[in-house]
Amino acid sequence: METLNHAKVTRVALVGAGAVGASFAYQLTTASLCEELVIIDINKAKAEGEAMDLNHGVSFASSPMRVWAGDYADCGAADIVVITAGAPQKPGETRLDLVEKNAKIMKSMIGEIMASGFDGMIIIASNPVDIMTHLAWKYSGLPKHRVFGSGTVLDTSRLRYMLGDYFNVDPRNCHAYIMGEHGDTEFAAWSNARIYGKSVEQLLEENDEYTWEDLEDIYVNVRDAAYHIIERKGATYYAIGLGLLRLVKAVLRNENTLLTVGAYLDGEYGLHDIHIGVPAIINRQGVRQVVEIELSEEEKQKMHHSADVLMKTMQPVL
Ligand code: 6V0
């Protein structure tokens, strides 16, 4: 009997079974996006424990999935490798303080991943994420559209949540982006923001309860959100876990959807040879296209300042 032979099994490999990795893995088991999830961590016992715990919930998921603690050889057959391994921020530490520590870790991980024969897509969350993404891309030798970072996807989600709260509307109706470094120099692209179809200027004109001061406070709260959470619970992981799931879904479902990721710039926004948070269309190929939105002069300066800070910080590890 003739059998159908398009049974390619979709595999996601997760490198880093810490708080961020485990949150992402947990979401993935409920999402029916892939058949296999392999978890890799230098701490094998942690990866094993996470795989056991997740497998014990698989009977409650909408479709079965195979989860196991594996090693780098298992990346060879993966469609996507998601990297969340590395030292996290300690209280008072900026993301950029992590650069040297995590650059070394990234080099060894990418070496092992590529040695497996991997030829898929890499998504990075480890901080400082823009720099780690750039290094991962360089070390991997993969085409630029196939290596991207979570960039400002989380920051944009934070912004949309806070704008939704302020304007009392569904965050999904708040189209506004945080761009630049995922970190202290990121900025809100207010000139492009649309809240239920209206520009921010228009909303402020129509209702004098809304002010630019409040919007500036919202931006500052978005920018400093990780510090506020780390002070209280030591780390942030649920929202970035969901953000990573969103990126993986955009790829595996070939969504052609706009998300603010850490994409490689090759002249867009006047910047070259850098990964930084920008709106981009994501599909099965990865970054299909970086979208150049019209920025105000002030926003352009902020973008360039953010890129300068990243470039300077990255120099010693390039
Ligand atoms: P964590 O809970 O300490 O987990 C890190 C994991 O990485 C641990 O399980 C380690 O054993 C593992 N690890 C360390 N070195 C290696 C190695 N060489 N090979 C394999 N595994 C290794 O940290 P957490 O999960 O909280 O954070 C992980 C990374 O995500 C950090 O760099 C964070 O700063 C970063 N985040 C990024 C965010 C974003 O928006 N991009 C948001 C939050 C955290």
TrEMBL record:
It catalyses: (S)-lactate + NAD(+) = pyruvate + NADH + H(+). GO terms for molecular function: L-lactate dehydrogenase (NAD+) activity. Substrate binds at residues 89, 95, 127-130, 155-158, 236. Keywords: Allosteric enzyme, Cytoplasm, NAD, Oxidoreductase, Phosphoprotein. The active site is at residue 182. Residues 152-316 form the Lactate/malate dehydrogenase C-terminal domain. It comes from the Bacteria. Allosterically activated by fructose 1,6-bisphosphate (FBP). NAD(+) binds at residues 20, 41, 46, 72, 86-87, 108, 125-127, 150. Pfam families: Ldh_1_C, Ldh_1_N. Gene3D superfamilies: Lactate dehydrogenase/glycoside hydrolase, family 4, C-terminal (3.90.110.10), NAD(P)-binding Rossmann-like Domain (3.40.50.720). Its main location: cytoplasm. Residues 11-149 form the Lactate/malate dehydrogenase N-terminal domain. NCBIfam families: L-LDH-NAD (TIGR01771), PRK00066.1 (NF000824), PRK06223.1 (NF004863). This is L-lactate dehydrogenase. The lineage of its organism: Bacteria, Bacillati, Bacillota, Bacilli, Bacillales. The gene is ldh.
